[in-house]
Specification:
The complex is a heterodimer of chains A (260) and B (266). With 260 residues, chain A is an all-alpha fold. Chain A has ten helices and no strands. The mean pLDDT of chain A is 82. Chain B has two domains: 58 residues, no CATH class; 198 residues, MetI-like fold (Orthogonal Bundle). Classes of the chains: A mainly alpha (260), B mainly alpha (266).
């Protein structure tokens, strides 16, 4: 009396199989045309073991400067976030479709923000460094650019979600643009704004560490220097400091998001 | 009675007001502290930004596309890195996502270990991974691929496990009650429900990978990034800008395609 009941229909099976085959083919083609140096990589795995075992030390004698560099990386992110936030708030109210004073201006801002976002923060920083030289100011400008790109888009979406009811109501009372923004929209978008800003803080600190790796300032450049010196203990200590700091940031940002 | 309630309300709002002003003060102190630590004047940004724009207009514009043929293989490589990296991290991410979710992994010690490893992968920025891998294994494109996988794996596994947690619950309980085995529950209960979320997160990680793949070259791990940096070091700004424009176009096209795919699926 035992009959086997099919768990999936034949038509679904054919579809699943053909999609899977197509995906595997895409992977195979991409993988083979990449021409990976797997052979060279495998021969190096042996040496990697010795490097890794050398990295298994920690040197706490230099912890002071390392922590200070981490603080500098975080400070660059905070400064960039602060100024970028102010610019993003202004730009988002100018470009959100329900409150924008001028349609052409809104389209221009949205287009520029899309271009800013399309270029990775690290490429922006290279251009900034080319014009202003290395240093914290260049790092801050780089982060201002990436913050404006990220937050303006998020903020504009939050404002547009509010619809136009409040705006229309306030307009009939004869309120001006600025008072509509401050009294009508700001109270209802302040929570999403804070939430986005907290998320951007976490991203910004990671970016700021990355910026250091191309030589700006902060803990990234410290890591590059210890890599250049073959100072194994300093490398591992720096990585651990980065990990613990980013973990703390992640936990704090998650708390903040829940609080908001 | 009414007076009491009003008083309580008043007291509460005073406490809240105190709390808010305290938080505002704290945030202001952190921001001011950051500017003092870096010895930057906030107004310097308003001088530096126009200076940067002027420099950009004078030195980068117009882009020079003359040597672009030379860069085509690198551009193709950058895309292929992102594709292959996304594939591998999507598969590994699913595995780790299942290990990370308490619905599908009953061993607390294993969950804890996986969570720690993934948190380590996620919280060390991608360029630090790339530099470290270049240091351990030497310059090569394998290293770039591994750095990409490490960078998205942490993020993907966490997102996957959150989606698994949302799906799991009563439906999987029902399958269990029917006597389905662990693997039957995973393959016939979990995976079909999970596929939309899987596709969505994977497309998102592809977008991230496109950007990351373009910057990995800056620490010697393959892709177009190295040429952007080299051109800038040689003061060939016009040529660098042409590569940056191509990169931006690649990112925008990727976003457009993934959005189209998302709409197609839903």
């Amino acid at each position: 009396m035992n009959t086997t009941v099919k768990l999936s229909r034949t038509k679904d099976k054919i579809r699943t199989v053909s999609i899977t085959v197509a995906l595997i083919a895409l992977f195979y083609v991409s993988f083979t045309s990449l021409d990976l140096d797997i052979g060279k990589f495998i021969t190096r795995i042996g040496d990697a073991g010795t490097v890794l075992s050398k990295l298994m030390t920690i040197d706490l004698s230099n912890i002071g400067p390392i922590l200070l560099a981490m603080l500098a990386s975080a400070a660059i992110a905070i400064c960039g976030l602060f100024i970028g936030l102010i610019i993003a708030i202004i730009l988002s109210f100018l470009s959100a479709s329900n409150i924008t004073p001028n349609g052409i201006l809104a389209a221009f801002i949205k287009g520029s923000v899309a271009v800013i976002r399309a270029v990775p923060a690290l490429v922006w920083i290279l251009m900034v460094v080319a014009s202003l030289g290395f240093g914290s100011t260049a790092g801050m400008i780089g982060l201002i650019i990436s913050t404006v790109g990220y937050l303006t888009k998020a903020f504009t979406a939050s404002i547009e979600e509010q619809g136009s009811n409040i705006i229309e109501a306030l307009k009939t009372t004869g309120a001006g643009w600025i008072s509509i923004v401050i009294k009508g929209l700001l109270p209802s978008v302040i929570r999403p704004f804070m939430s986005w800003t907290a998320i951007k803080l976490e991203i910004g600190i990671a970016e700021s560490i990355n910026l250091g790796m191309v030589g700006v300032a902060g803990i990234g450049s410290m890591l590059m220097k210890s890599l250049g010196r073959y100072d194994y203990a300093a490398i591992s200590t720096t990585i651990i400091v980065i990990f613990i700091s980013m973990l703390i940031v992640e936990i704090v940002v998650n708390r903040l998001k829940k609080l908001i | 009675m009414r007076n009491e309630i009003e008083n309580a309300d008043l007291a509460l709002s005073t406490v809240n007001r105190w709390k808010t002003s305290l938080i505002v003060l704290l945030v202001a102190a952190i921001i001011i502290g950051a500017f003092i630590l870096l010895e930057i004047n906030p107004w310097s940004a308003f001088i530096a930004v126009p200076e940067f724009i002027a420099f950009f207009v004078n030195n980068f514009l117009p882009p020079n596309f003359d040597n672009i043929n030379k860069y085509v293989p690198l551009i193709v490589d950058t895309i292929l890195f992102a594709v292959v990296g996304t594939y591998i991290s999507a598969v590994l991410g699913l595995l780790f996502g299942i290990l990370l979710s308490e619905q599908t992994n009953r061993f607390a010690w294993l969950r804890f270990t996986v969570r720690f490893v993934l948190s380590f992968l996620r919280n060390v920025p991608v360029l630090a991974w790339a530099a470290l891998l270049v240091y351990i294994f030497g310059i090569g494109n394998m290293v770039g691929l591994i750095a990409l996988i490490l960078a998205t794996l942490g993020f993907l596994a966490r997102s996957y496990s959150e989606s698994i947690n949302e799906i799991a619950g009563s439906k999987l309980e029902a399958l269990k009650a029917c006597g389905a085995s662990y693997w039957q529950i995973i393959i016939h209960g979990l995976i079909p429900q999970f596929i939309p979320a899987w596709i969505n997160w994977t497309l998102f990680s592809f977008e991230i990978n496109m950007r990351a793949s373009a910057i990995l070259g800056m620490v010697g791990a393959g892709g177009i990034g190295i040429m952007i940096q080299t051109n800038m070091r040689l003061f060939k700004y016009h040529e660098a800008l042409s590569l940056i424009i191509i990169l931006a176009a690649m990112v925008l096209i990727t976003e457009y395609c993934t959005n189209k795919l998302r709409k197609l699926i839903h």
